[in-house]
User: Fold RidA family protein from Streptomyces shaanxiensis.
Amino acid sequence: MSLPLPQTVKGDSASERLQNIGLELPDLPGNAYFVHHRAVDSSIHISGQLPYRNGVLLGQGVVGRDVELETAKELARHAVLNCLAAAVEAVGDLDGVRIVQMLVFVASTPDFGEQSQVANAASELLIEVLGENGRHARTAIGVAGLPLNTPVEIQMICTAV
Assistant:
């Protein structure tokens, strides 16, 4: 059985595709304790990003108890937008980003078991916007808790193309 693959959104550039689905990359505030990205050789390591929009954390709680699956998926999409913003800071242009690996942390109850569905929402967004450059290796894991009681945190490694 083969699964349907997410499709790239129409648009000549990754920035246009992002705009065509009604999204834009956020500005990332500075932090005194860490940087949003660090280049090592050809790899760019993106710090774990939370689902912030305009400086506001969009959700709190544990998936499977306080947070529904669909809400967690939407939070994952916001977190991955912040990852893309950090990647653009490092590379300079959305079309120059290739995702290598994504690690998705989901604060969830021990019996939840659908962390991969939460991660799929972020993966789909990457493929919609970046096409083949958005396909990546991935790990999705459940954890007992995350910073600020957020349900989702995403970390990634990318490279410039």
In short: Helices lie at 14-20, 69-91, 115-130. Strands lie at 37-40, 43-49, 52-53, 56-57, 97-107, 137-143, 152-160. The longest strand covers residues 97-107.
